Protein backbone atom coordinates (compact mmCIF):
# COMPACT_ATOMS: atom_id res chain seq x y z
CA UNK A 1 0.00 0.00 0.00
CA UNK A 2 1.43 3.39 -0.98
CA UNK A 3 2.05 6.17 1.54
CA UNK A 4 -0.82 8.15 0.05
CA UNK A 5 -3.18 5.18 0.37
CA UNK A 6 -2.12 4.64 3.97
CA UNK A 7 -2.74 8.30 4.77
CA UNK A 8 -6.22 8.26 3.21
CA UNK A 9 -7.10 5.00 4.98
CA UNK A 10 -6.02 6.33 8.37
CA UNK A 11 -7.90 9.58 7.79
CA UNK A 12 -11.06 7.62 6.99
CA UNK A 13 -10.65 5.44 10.09
CA UNK A 14 -10.10 8.47 12.34
CA UNK A 15 -13.13 10.23 10.84
CA UNK A 16 -15.40 7.30 11.65
CA UNK A 17 -13.91 6.38 15.01
CA UNK A 18 -13.42 9.86 16.53
CA UNK A 19 -15.38 12.51 14.63
CA UNK A 20 -18.54 10.93 13.32
CA UNK A 21 -21.51 12.18 15.38
CA UNK A 22 -19.05 13.43 18.00
CA UNK A 23 -21.51 15.92 19.47
CA UNK A 24 -24.62 13.75 19.21
CA UNK A 25 -24.63 12.52 22.81
CA UNK A 26 -24.83 14.94 25.75
CA UNK A 27 -21.86 15.27 28.10
CA UNK A 28 -21.33 12.30 30.38
CA UNK A 29 -21.26 12.82 34.15
CA UNK A 30 -19.26 13.73 36.11
CA UNK A 31 -15.97 14.58 34.36
CA UNK A 32 -17.14 16.03 31.05
CA UNK A 33 -19.45 18.61 32.67
CA UNK A 34 -16.61 19.54 35.05
CA UNK A 35 -14.28 20.46 32.19
CA UNK A 36 -17.12 21.99 30.18
CA UNK A 37 -18.30 24.19 33.05
CA UNK A 38 -14.73 25.32 33.72
CA UNK A 39 -14.25 26.17 30.06
CA UNK A 40 -17.59 27.98 29.83
CA UNK A 41 -16.84 30.13 32.88
CA UNK A 42 -13.40 30.99 31.51
CA UNK A 43 -14.87 31.95 28.12
CA UNK A 44 -17.59 34.05 29.72
CA UNK A 45 -15.07 35.82 31.96
CA UNK A 46 -12.44 36.05 29.20
CA UNK A 47 -10.09 34.39 31.69
CA UNK A 48 -7.10 32.83 29.88
CA UNK A 49 -4.82 32.17 32.82
CA UNK A 50 -6.67 30.77 35.84
CA UNK A 51 -9.09 27.84 35.48
CA UNK A 52 -12.32 28.66 37.31
CA UNK A 53 -15.43 26.78 38.32
CA UNK A 54 -18.38 27.91 40.46
CA UNK A 55 -16.93 31.40 40.13
CA UNK A 56 -13.74 30.45 41.99
CA UNK A 57 -10.27 29.37 40.88
CA UNK A 58 -9.60 25.64 40.68
CA UNK A 59 -6.24 23.96 40.24
CA UNK A 60 -7.04 20.36 39.30
CA UNK A 61 -5.28 20.64 35.91
CA UNK A 62 -2.92 23.14 34.27
CA UNK A 63 -3.97 25.41 31.44
CA UNK A 64 -3.12 23.85 28.06
CA UNK A 65 -6.22 21.67 27.69
CA UNK A 66 -8.43 24.58 28.72
CA UNK A 67 -6.87 26.79 26.07
CA UNK A 68 -7.78 24.21 23.46
CA UNK A 69 -11.31 23.87 24.82
CA UNK A 70 -11.83 27.63 24.99
CA UNK A 71 -10.76 28.06 21.37
CA UNK A 72 -13.07 25.24 20.29
CA UNK A 73 -15.98 26.75 22.26
CA UNK A 74 -15.37 30.17 20.74
CA UNK A 75 -15.37 28.65 17.24
CA UNK A 76 -18.18 26.09 17.51
CA UNK A 77 -20.22 27.43 20.43
CA UNK A 78 -21.12 25.86 23.76
CA UNK A 79 -22.11 22.35 22.69
CA UNK A 80 -20.86 18.74 23.05
CA UNK A 81 -19.02 18.82 19.72
CA UNK A 82 -16.96 21.84 20.75
CA UNK A 83 -16.24 20.31 24.15
CA UNK A 84 -14.96 17.05 22.65
CA UNK A 85 -13.24 18.43 19.55
CA UNK A 86 -9.83 18.89 21.29
CA UNK A 87 -9.82 15.22 22.33
CA UNK A 88 -10.78 14.02 18.87
CA UNK A 89 -8.14 16.27 17.30
CA UNK A 90 -5.44 14.99 19.68
CA UNK A 91 -6.48 11.40 19.03
CA UNK A 92 -6.23 11.93 15.28
CA UNK A 93 -2.81 13.60 15.56
CA UNK A 94 -1.56 10.78 17.80
CA UNK A 95 -2.63 8.14 15.28
CA UNK A 96 -0.68 9.89 12.53
CA UNK A 97 2.27 10.50 14.86
CA UNK A 98 2.34 6.78 15.66
CA UNK A 99 2.21 6.00 11.94
CA UNK A 100 5.14 8.34 11.26
CA UNK A 101 7.24 7.03 14.12
CA UNK A 102 6.45 3.39 13.41
CA UNK A 103 7.65 3.87 9.85
CA UNK A 104 10.98 5.21 11.11
CA UNK A 105 11.49 2.71 13.91
CA UNK A 106 10.29 -0.43 12.12
CA UNK A 107 8.99 -0.22 8.54
CA UNK A 108 6.32 1.64 6.52
CA UNK A 109 3.87 -1.24 6.84
CA UNK A 110 4.58 -1.74 10.56
CA UNK A 111 3.91 1.95 11.19
CA UNK A 112 0.64 1.74 9.29
CA UNK A 113 -0.42 -1.40 11.18
CA UNK A 114 0.46 0.25 14.51
CA UNK A 115 -1.63 3.32 13.67
CA UNK A 116 -4.59 1.17 12.62
CA UNK A 117 -4.41 -0.91 15.80
CA UNK A 118 -4.20 2.22 17.95
CA UNK A 119 -7.13 3.91 16.21
CA UNK A 120 -9.42 0.89 16.54
CA UNK A 121 -8.81 -0.29 20.09
CA UNK A 122 -11.99 -0.04 22.14
CA UNK A 123 -10.64 2.14 24.96
CA UNK A 124 -8.80 4.46 22.59
CA UNK A 125 -11.96 5.05 20.58
CA UNK A 126 -14.07 5.58 23.69
CA UNK A 127 -11.70 8.03 25.39
CA UNK A 128 -11.11 9.93 22.16
CA UNK A 129 -14.79 10.80 22.07
CA UNK A 130 -14.86 12.30 25.57
CA UNK A 131 -13.83 15.66 26.99
CA UNK A 132 -10.79 14.51 28.96
CA UNK A 133 -7.20 15.71 29.28
CA UNK A 134 -5.60 12.30 28.84
CA UNK A 135 -5.55 12.14 25.03
CA UNK A 136 -3.72 15.46 24.86
CA UNK A 137 -1.29 14.24 27.52
CA UNK A 138 -0.69 10.99 25.61
CA UNK A 139 0.04 12.98 22.43
CA UNK A 140 2.63 15.17 24.17
CA UNK A 141 4.28 12.32 26.07
CA UNK A 142 4.48 10.14 22.95
CA UNK A 143 6.00 12.97 20.91
CA UNK A 144 8.59 13.54 23.63
CA UNK A 145 9.52 9.86 23.83
CA UNK A 146 9.65 9.46 20.03
CA UNK A 147 12.00 12.43 19.70
CA UNK A 148 14.27 11.03 22.39
CA UNK A 149 14.58 7.73 20.52
CA UNK A 150 15.40 9.52 17.29
CA UNK A 151 18.01 11.62 19.11
CA UNK A 152 19.78 8.41 20.17
CA UNK A 153 19.63 6.93 16.65
CA UNK A 154 20.38 9.94 14.44
CA UNK A 155 23.51 11.57 15.79
CA UNK A 156 23.65 14.13 12.99
CA UNK A 157 20.17 15.37 13.92
CA UNK A 158 20.50 14.85 17.67
CA UNK A 159 20.21 18.51 18.64
CA UNK A 160 17.01 19.00 16.65
CA UNK A 161 15.36 15.92 18.14
CA UNK A 162 16.41 16.83 21.68
CA UNK A 163 14.94 20.31 21.34
CA UNK A 164 11.67 18.81 20.13
CA UNK A 165 11.85 16.28 22.97
CA UNK A 166 11.93 19.13 25.49
CA UNK A 167 9.22 21.09 23.64
CA UNK A 168 6.81 18.15 23.72
CA UNK A 169 7.60 17.53 27.39
CA UNK A 170 6.85 21.18 28.16
CA UNK A 171 3.40 20.91 26.62
CA UNK A 172 2.83 17.69 28.60
CA UNK A 173 3.76 19.64 31.74
CA UNK A 174 1.24 22.31 30.76
CA UNK A 175 -1.42 19.65 30.20
CA UNK A 176 -1.28 17.66 33.42
CA UNK A 177 1.65 18.78 35.52
CA UNK A 178 4.80 16.95 36.69
CA UNK A 179 3.66 13.62 35.26
CA UNK A 180 4.27 15.06 31.80
CA UNK A 181 7.94 15.49 32.68
CA UNK A 182 8.30 12.36 34.80
CA UNK A 183 7.03 9.74 32.33
CA UNK A 184 9.42 10.54 29.44
CA UNK A 185 12.34 10.98 31.84
CA UNK A 186 11.87 7.62 33.59
CA UNK A 187 11.89 5.69 30.32
CA UNK A 188 14.73 7.67 28.77
CA UNK A 189 17.10 7.27 31.74
CA UNK A 190 16.40 3.54 31.90
CA UNK A 191 17.13 3.07 28.21
CA UNK A 192 20.46 4.95 28.29
CA UNK A 193 21.53 3.10 31.42
CA UNK A 194 20.73 -0.38 30.08
CA UNK A 195 22.17 0.11 26.60
CA UNK A 196 25.24 2.07 27.60
CA UNK A 197 24.58 4.48 24.73
CA UNK A 198 26.11 7.92 24.90
CA UNK A 199 23.62 10.29 26.48
CA UNK A 200 21.85 12.61 24.02
CA UNK A 201 21.45 15.12 26.87
CA UNK A 202 24.47 17.15 25.85
CA UNK A 203 25.56 20.03 23.66
CA UNK A 204 23.36 22.78 22.36
CA UNK A 205 20.41 20.40 22.02
CA UNK A 206 20.34 20.13 25.81
CA UNK A 207 20.71 23.82 26.59
CA UNK A 208 18.40 25.07 23.87
CA UNK A 209 15.95 22.34 24.82
CA UNK A 210 15.95 23.39 28.47
CA UNK A 211 15.47 27.01 27.49
CA UNK A 212 12.60 26.03 25.16
CA UNK A 213 11.03 23.98 27.98
CA UNK A 214 11.26 26.91 30.37
CA UNK A 215 9.93 29.34 27.75
CA UNK A 216 6.86 27.16 27.11
CA UNK A 217 5.98 25.73 30.52
CA UNK A 218 7.62 28.29 32.79
CA UNK A 219 5.60 31.50 32.23
CA UNK A 220 2.20 30.07 33.16
CA UNK A 221 3.49 28.37 36.31
CA UNK A 222 5.39 31.55 37.20
CA UNK A 223 2.17 33.56 36.90
CA UNK A 224 0.33 31.06 39.13
CA UNK A 225 3.00 31.36 41.83
CA UNK A 226 3.11 35.13 41.46
CA UNK A 227 -0.68 35.43 41.82
CA UNK A 228 -1.41 32.70 44.36
CA UNK A 229 1.93 31.84 46.01
CA UNK A 230 1.94 28.86 48.36
CA UNK A 231 -1.77 28.35 47.87
CA UNK A 232 -1.03 27.14 44.35
CA UNK A 233 1.85 24.97 45.56
CA UNK A 234 -0.30 23.21 48.15
CA UNK A 235 -3.45 22.89 46.07
CA UNK A 236 -1.83 21.68 42.85
CA UNK A 237 1.57 20.16 43.52
CA UNK A 238 0.83 18.77 46.99
CA UNK A 239 -2.89 18.01 46.87
CA UNK A 240 -3.50 17.17 43.21
CA UNK A 241 -0.21 15.33 42.63
CA UNK A 242 1.48 14.12 45.81
CA UNK A 243 -1.69 13.22 47.70
CA UNK A 244 -3.10 11.37 44.69
CA UNK A 245 0.13 9.38 44.70
CA UNK A 246 -0.04 8.53 48.40
CA UNK A 247 -3.79 8.18 49.02
CA UNK A 248 -6.46 6.27 47.15
CA UNK A 249 -9.15 8.55 45.77
CA UNK A 250 -10.82 5.52 44.11
CA UNK A 251 -10.29 2.68 46.57
CA UNK A 252 -12.15 0.10 44.48
CA UNK A 253 -9.46 0.25 41.77
CA UNK A 254 -6.40 0.21 44.02
CA UNK A 255 -5.10 -3.24 43.03
CA UNK A 256 -1.72 -4.29 41.60
CA UNK A 257 -3.32 -5.89 38.53
CA UNK A 258 -5.61 -2.96 37.74
CA UNK A 259 -3.67 -1.43 34.84
CA UNK A 260 -2.77 -4.80 33.34
CA UNK A 261 -6.48 -5.58 33.25
CA UNK A 262 -7.33 -2.16 31.77
CA UNK A 263 -4.69 -2.41 29.04
CA UNK A 264 -5.76 -5.91 28.08
CA UNK A 265 -9.50 -5.24 28.05
CA UNK A 266 -8.97 -1.85 26.41
CA UNK A 267 -7.11 -3.51 23.54
CA UNK A 268 -10.21 -5.45 22.48
CA UNK A 269 -10.60 -6.68 19.69
CA UNK A 270 -6.81 -6.96 19.25
CA UNK A 271 -6.07 -9.16 22.30
CA UNK A 272 -4.63 -12.10 20.27
CA UNK A 273 -2.15 -9.75 18.62
CA UNK A 274 -1.40 -7.98 21.92
CA UNK A 275 -0.27 -11.08 23.80
CA UNK A 276 1.72 -12.40 20.84
CA UNK A 277 3.44 -9.02 20.50
CA UNK A 278 4.34 -8.92 24.19
CA UNK A 279 5.81 -12.43 24.00
CA UNK A 280 7.89 -11.44 20.95
CA UNK A 281 9.04 -8.24 22.64
CA UNK A 282 10.21 -10.11 25.76
CA UNK A 283 12.16 -12.57 23.63
CA UNK A 284 13.79 -9.73 21.70
CA UNK A 285 14.95 -7.65 24.68
CA UNK A 286 18.55 -8.87 24.54
CA UNK A 287 19.00 -8.58 20.78
CA UNK A 288 16.79 -5.70 19.64
CA UNK A 289 17.21 -2.22 21.12
CA UNK A 290 13.81 -1.27 19.78
CA UNK A 291 12.17 -3.82 22.07
CA UNK A 292 14.35 -2.68 24.95
CA UNK A 293 13.32 0.93 24.36
CA UNK A 294 9.63 -0.02 24.43
CA UNK A 295 10.21 -1.98 27.63
CA UNK A 296 11.99 0.98 29.24
CA UNK A 297 9.07 3.22 28.31
CA UNK A 298 6.49 0.74 29.55
CA UNK A 299 7.77 -1.23 32.56
CA UNK A 300 9.15 1.47 34.92
CA UNK A 301 6.14 3.71 34.33
CA UNK A 302 3.74 0.80 34.82
CA UNK A 303 5.44 0.06 38.15
CA UNK A 304 5.21 3.72 39.12
CA UNK A 305 1.50 4.03 38.32
CA UNK A 306 0.79 0.71 40.02
CA UNK A 307 2.47 1.97 43.19
CA UNK A 308 0.33 5.12 43.07
CA UNK A 309 -2.72 4.67 45.25
CA UNK A 310 -5.13 6.64 43.04
CA UNK A 311 -5.89 4.69 39.88
CA UNK A 312 -8.19 5.40 36.93
CA UNK A 313 -8.33 3.84 33.43
CA UNK A 314 -7.22 7.13 31.85
CA UNK A 315 -4.07 7.63 33.91
CA UNK A 316 -1.98 5.24 31.78
CA UNK A 317 -3.66 6.01 28.48
CA UNK A 318 -0.33 6.70 26.76
CA UNK A 319 0.59 3.01 27.20
CA UNK A 320 -1.75 2.16 24.34
CA UNK A 321 0.74 3.86 21.99
CA UNK A 322 3.56 1.62 23.23
CA UNK A 323 1.64 -1.60 22.78
CA UNK A 324 0.21 -0.45 19.44
CA UNK A 325 3.75 -0.06 18.09
CA UNK A 326 4.63 -3.54 19.30
CA UNK A 327 1.47 -4.96 17.76
CA UNK A 328 2.08 -3.14 14.49
CA UNK A 329 5.58 -4.62 14.25
CA UNK A 330 4.24 -8.11 15.02
CA UNK A 331 1.46 -7.82 12.46
CA UNK A 332 3.98 -6.73 9.86
CA UNK A 333 5.98 -9.88 10.60
CA UNK A 334 2.89 -12.04 10.41
CA UNK A 335 2.04 -10.63 7.00
CA UNK A 336 5.59 -11.10 5.70
CA UNK A 337 6.63 -14.37 7.29
CA UNK A 338 3.60 -15.87 8.97
CA UNK A 339 3.70 -17.09 12.55
CA UNK A 340 7.14 -17.52 14.04
CA UNK A 341 6.35 -20.96 15.40
CA UNK A 342 3.56 -23.43 15.98
CA UNK A 343 3.40 -22.22 19.58
CA UNK A 344 2.76 -18.64 18.47
CA UNK A 345 0.05 -19.77 16.07
CA UNK A 346 -1.64 -21.81 18.81
CA UNK A 347 -1.36 -18.89 21.25
CA UNK A 348 -2.91 -16.37 18.84
CA UNK A 349 -5.64 -18.76 17.71
CA UNK A 350 -6.49 -19.74 21.28
CA UNK A 351 -6.72 -16.11 22.34
CA UNK A 352 -8.97 -15.32 19.37
CA UNK A 353 -11.31 -18.08 20.49
CA UNK A 354 -11.06 -17.02 24.14
CA UNK A 355 -11.77 -13.40 23.23
CA UNK A 356 -14.96 -14.41 21.42
CA UNK A 357 -16.04 -16.76 24.22
CA UNK A 358 -15.51 -14.08 26.86
CA UNK A 359 -17.61 -11.55 24.92
CA UNK A 360 -20.37 -14.14 24.49
CA UNK A 361 -20.08 -15.04 28.15
CA UNK A 362 -20.39 -11.38 29.14
CA UNK A 363 -23.56 -11.08 27.08
CA UNK A 364 -24.97 -14.23 28.68
CA UNK A 365 -24.15 -13.06 32.21
CA UNK A 366 -25.70 -9.65 31.63
CA UNK A 367 -28.86 -10.98 29.99
CA UNK A 368 -29.45 -14.13 32.06
CA UNK A 369 -27.70 -13.81 35.44
CA UNK A 370 -27.34 -10.14 36.32
CA UNK A 371 -30.09 -9.20 38.83
CA UNK A 372 -32.70 -6.80 37.40
CA UNK A 373 -31.78 -4.00 39.80
CA UNK A 374 -31.97 -0.35 38.84
CA UNK A 375 -28.18 -0.05 38.79
CA UNK A 376 -28.03 -2.82 36.19
CA UNK A 377 -30.68 -1.48 33.82
CA UNK A 378 -28.22 0.36 31.57
CA UNK A 379 -25.92 -2.65 31.40
CA UNK A 380 -28.85 -4.82 30.38
CA UNK A 381 -29.72 -2.33 27.65
CA UNK A 382 -26.27 -2.97 26.19
CA UNK A 383 -26.95 -6.69 25.68
CA UNK A 384 -27.78 -6.24 21.95
CA UNK A 385 -24.47 -4.41 21.51
CA UNK A 386 -22.54 -7.17 23.26
CA UNK A 387 -24.23 -9.91 21.23
CA UNK A 388 -23.58 -7.96 18.04
CA UNK A 389 -19.93 -7.61 19.01
CA UNK A 390 -19.72 -11.33 19.72
CA UNK A 391 -21.25 -12.14 16.33
CA UNK A 392 -18.84 -9.89 14.46
CA UNK A 393 -15.77 -10.80 16.51
CA UNK A 394 -16.26 -14.44 15.56
CA UNK A 395 -15.54 -13.60 11.91
CA UNK A 396 -11.92 -12.49 12.45
CA UNK A 397 -11.52 -15.45 14.81
CA UNK A 398 -12.30 -17.85 11.97
CA UNK A 399 -10.00 -15.97 9.60
CA UNK A 400 -7.13 -16.15 12.08
CA UNK A 401 -7.69 -19.87 12.53
CA UNK A 402 -7.40 -20.13 8.74
CA UNK A 403 -4.10 -18.13 8.92
CA UNK A 404 -5.46 -15.39 6.66
CA UNK A 405 -3.70 -12.59 8.52
CA UNK A 406 -4.56 -9.65 6.26
CA UNK A 407 -8.23 -10.61 6.13
CA UNK A 408 -8.21 -11.10 9.91
CA UNK A 409 -6.78 -7.62 10.45
CA UNK A 410 -9.33 -6.01 8.12
CA UNK A 411 -12.21 -7.85 9.78
CA UNK A 412 -10.95 -6.80 13.23
CA UNK A 413 -10.97 -3.15 12.18
CA UNK A 414 -14.58 -3.60 11.07
CA UNK A 415 -15.46 -5.00 14.51
CA UNK A 416 -14.66 -1.66 16.17
CA UNK A 417 -16.49 0.20 13.41
CA UNK A 418 -19.54 -1.98 14.07
CA UNK A 419 -19.33 -1.19 17.80
CA UNK A 420 -19.27 2.55 17.06
CA UNK A 421 -22.20 2.29 14.62
CA UNK A 422 -24.32 0.11 16.91
CA UNK A 423 -23.65 2.37 19.88
CA UNK A 424 -24.60 5.43 17.84
CA UNK A 425 -27.80 4.01 16.39
CA UNK A 426 -28.67 1.04 18.59
CA UNK A 427 -28.59 2.46 22.11
CA UNK A 428 -27.88 6.17 21.65
CA UNK A 429 -31.37 7.00 22.89
CA UNK A 430 -30.71 5.09 26.13
CA UNK A 431 -27.20 6.33 26.91
CA UNK A 432 -28.25 9.85 28.02
CA UNK A 433 -30.87 8.37 30.36
CA UNK A 434 -28.19 6.77 32.50
CA UNK A 435 -25.11 8.92 31.89
CA UNK A 436 -26.24 12.54 31.53
CA UNK A 437 -28.06 15.13 33.64
CA UNK A 438 -28.94 17.34 30.66
CA UNK A 439 -32.62 16.46 30.23
CA UNK A 440 -33.60 16.35 33.87
CA UNK A 441 -31.78 19.65 34.48
CA UNK A 442 -33.83 21.19 31.66
CA UNK A 443 -36.99 19.89 33.35
CA UNK A 444 -35.86 21.42 36.64
CA UNK A 445 -35.44 24.81 34.98
CA UNK A 446 -39.05 24.58 33.71
CA UNK A 447 -40.70 23.71 37.04
CA UNK A 448 -38.52 25.71 39.41
CA UNK A 449 -40.49 28.33 41.29
CA UNK A 450 -39.16 31.87 41.86
CA UNK A 451 -36.67 31.91 44.73
CA UNK A 452 -36.88 28.15 45.20
CA UNK A 453 -33.50 26.66 46.30
CA UNK A 454 -32.03 23.90 44.15
CA UNK A 455 -30.22 21.01 45.85
CA UNK A 456 -28.49 18.18 44.05
CA UNK A 457 -26.44 15.04 44.70
CA UNK A 458 -22.70 15.59 44.88
CA UNK A 459 -21.95 13.33 41.89
CA UNK A 460 -23.96 15.49 39.49
CA UNK A 461 -23.46 18.95 41.05
CA UNK A 462 -21.07 20.04 38.29
CA UNK A 463 -23.46 18.83 35.59
CA UNK A 464 -26.41 20.58 37.21
CA UNK A 465 -24.43 23.82 37.28
CA UNK A 466 -23.43 23.45 33.64
CA UNK A 467 -26.90 22.64 32.34
CA UNK A 468 -28.95 25.02 34.48
CA UNK A 469 -26.46 27.87 34.24
CA UNK A 470 -26.59 28.40 38.01
CA UNK A 471 -24.77 26.91 40.95
CA UNK A 472 -27.05 24.82 43.22
CA UNK A 473 -27.81 26.19 46.67
CA UNK A 474 -26.83 22.89 48.25
CA UNK A 475 -24.93 19.67 47.50
CA UNK A 476 -26.36 16.67 49.31
CA UNK A 477 -24.09 13.87 50.47
CA UNK A 478 -24.16 11.30 53.25
CA UNK A 479 -20.89 11.41 55.23
CA UNK A 480 -19.23 8.17 56.24
CA UNK A 481 -18.05 9.72 59.51
CA UNK A 482 -17.59 12.98 61.42
CA UNK A 483 -14.35 13.69 59.56
CA UNK A 484 -16.06 13.40 56.16
CA UNK A 485 -16.61 17.10 55.56
CA UNK A 486 -17.16 17.11 51.79
CA UNK A 487 -17.63 14.53 49.04
CA UNK A 488 -14.95 15.70 46.62
CA UNK A 489 -11.28 14.82 46.55
CA UNK A 490 -10.72 18.41 45.44
CA UNK A 491 -12.82 20.82 47.55
CA UNK A 492 -15.08 23.38 45.86
CA UNK A 493 -15.51 26.06 48.56
CA UNK A 494 -18.36 27.95 46.81
CA UNK A 495 -20.60 24.87 47.03
CA UNK A 496 -22.65 24.61 50.20
CA UNK A 497 -22.45 21.06 51.54
CA UNK A 498 -25.66 19.51 52.89
CA UNK A 499 -24.67 16.64 55.18
CA UNK A 500 -27.45 14.08 55.13
CA UNK A 501 -31.21 14.12 55.66
CA UNK A 502 -31.10 16.18 58.84
CA UNK A 503 -29.21 19.04 57.17
CA UNK A 504 -31.56 18.98 54.17
CA UNK A 505 -34.56 19.00 56.49
CA UNK A 506 -33.15 22.03 58.29
CA UNK A 507 -32.65 23.82 54.97
CA UNK A 508 -36.20 22.97 53.85
CA UNK A 509 -37.70 24.18 57.14
CA UNK A 510 -36.62 27.73 56.21
CA UNK A 511 -38.22 27.62 52.74
CA UNK A 512 -41.63 27.15 51.17
CA UNK A 513 -40.11 24.26 49.22
CA UNK A 514 -36.82 22.91 47.92
CA UNK A 515 -36.33 21.53 44.42
CA UNK A 516 -33.89 18.62 44.23
CA UNK A 517 -32.17 16.65 41.48
CA UNK A 518 -31.05 13.52 43.28
CA UNK A 519 -29.55 10.18 42.44
CA UNK A 520 -31.73 7.25 43.43
CA UNK A 521 -29.46 6.01 46.22
CA UNK A 522 -29.53 9.47 47.84
CA UNK A 523 -33.31 9.70 47.45
CA UNK A 524 -33.67 6.29 49.07
CA UNK A 525 -31.94 7.61 52.20
CA UNK A 526 -34.46 10.46 52.39
CA UNK A 527 -37.51 8.22 51.99
CA UNK A 528 -36.87 5.76 54.81
CA UNK A 529 -39.45 5.97 57.63
CA UNK A 530 -36.83 7.28 60.09
CA UNK A 531 -35.93 10.19 57.84
CA UNK A 532 -37.15 13.66 58.92
CA UNK A 533 -38.20 14.16 55.28
CA UNK A 534 -40.37 11.05 55.07
CA UNK A 535 -43.77 11.96 53.59
CA UNK A 536 -42.65 15.43 52.49
CA UNK A 537 -41.19 14.43 49.11
CA UNK A 538 -43.12 14.93 45.87
CA UNK A 539 -41.70 13.12 42.84
CA UNK A 540 -41.88 15.21 39.68
CA UNK A 541 -39.79 13.39 37.12
CA UNK A 542 -37.47 10.39 36.84
CA UNK A 543 -34.73 9.72 34.31
CA UNK A 544 -32.74 6.58 34.90
CA UNK A 545 -31.12 6.97 38.31
CA UNK A 546 -31.79 10.73 38.40
CA UNK A 547 -34.90 12.03 40.14
CA UNK A 548 -36.47 15.47 40.20
CA UNK A 549 -38.36 15.95 43.46
CA UNK A 550 -39.80 18.78 45.51
CA UNK A 551 -39.53 18.80 49.28
CA UNK A 552 -42.23 20.61 51.24
CA UNK A 553 -40.79 23.32 53.45
CA UNK A 554 -41.72 24.68 56.85
CA UNK A 555 -42.99 28.10 55.82
Q: How is this fold's topology laid out?
A:
Elements: H1 3-19, H2 31-44, E1 52-53, E2 56-57, H3 64-76, H4 80-105, H5 108-120, H6 122-128, H7 134-153, H8 158-176, H9 179-195, H10 203-228, H11 230-246, H12 258-266, H13 271-283, H14 289-307, H15 319-337, H16 342-369, H17 377-381, H18 383-401, H19 405-426, H20 431-435, H21 438-447, E3 454-457, H22 461-468, E4 474-477, E5 497-499, H23 500-509, E6 513-519, H24 520-527, E7 537-543, E8 546-552
Parallel strand pairs: 3-4, 3-6, 4-5
Antiparallel strand pairs: 1-2, 6-8, 7-8
Helix pairs in contact: 1-4, 1-5, 2-3, 2-22, 3-4, 4-5, 4-7, 5-15, 7-8, 7-9, 8-9, 8-10, 9-14, 13-15, 13-16, 14-15, 16-18, 18-19, 21-22
Provide the descriptors you would attach to this structure in a database record.
8 strands; six-stranded mixed sheet; alpha/beta; 555 residues; 66% helix; single chain
How would you summarize what this structure contains?
With 555 residues, the chain is α/β, with parallel strands linked by helices. Helix content is 66%, strand content 6%. The protein has 24 helices and eight strands.
Describe this structure in words.
The chain is of the alpha/beta class and 555 residues long. The chain is 66% helix and 6% strand. It contains 24 helices and 8 strands. A 6-stranded mixed beta sheet has the order 5-4-3-6-8-7, with helices on both faces. Strands 1-2 form a two-stranded antiparallel sheet. α1 packs antiparallel against α4 (80-105) and α9 (179-195) crosses α14. It is globular and about 80 Å long. Its main location: membrane. It is a multi-pass membrane protein. InterPro entries: LipidA_mod_glycosyltrf_83, RgtA/B/C-like. Keywords: Cell membrane, Glycosyltransferase, Membrane, Transferase, Transmembrane, Transmembrane helix.
Amino acid sequence: MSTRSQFITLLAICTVMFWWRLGHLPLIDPDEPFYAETTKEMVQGNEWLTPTIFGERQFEKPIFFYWQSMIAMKIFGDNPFACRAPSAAAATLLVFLTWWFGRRMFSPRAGFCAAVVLATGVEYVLMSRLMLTDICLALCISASVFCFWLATEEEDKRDRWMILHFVASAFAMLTKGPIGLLVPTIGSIGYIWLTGKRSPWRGKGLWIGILAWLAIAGPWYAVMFQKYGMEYWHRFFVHENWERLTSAEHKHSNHWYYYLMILTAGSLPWIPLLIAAVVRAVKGLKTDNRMLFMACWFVPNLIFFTICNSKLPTYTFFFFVTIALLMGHTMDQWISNGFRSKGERVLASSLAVLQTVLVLGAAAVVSLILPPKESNVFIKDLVPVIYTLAAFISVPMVLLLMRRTVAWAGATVLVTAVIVIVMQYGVDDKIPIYTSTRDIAAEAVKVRQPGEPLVTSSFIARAVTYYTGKMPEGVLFFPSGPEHLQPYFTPHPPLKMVRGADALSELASKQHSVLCILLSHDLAHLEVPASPLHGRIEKLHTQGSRNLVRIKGGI
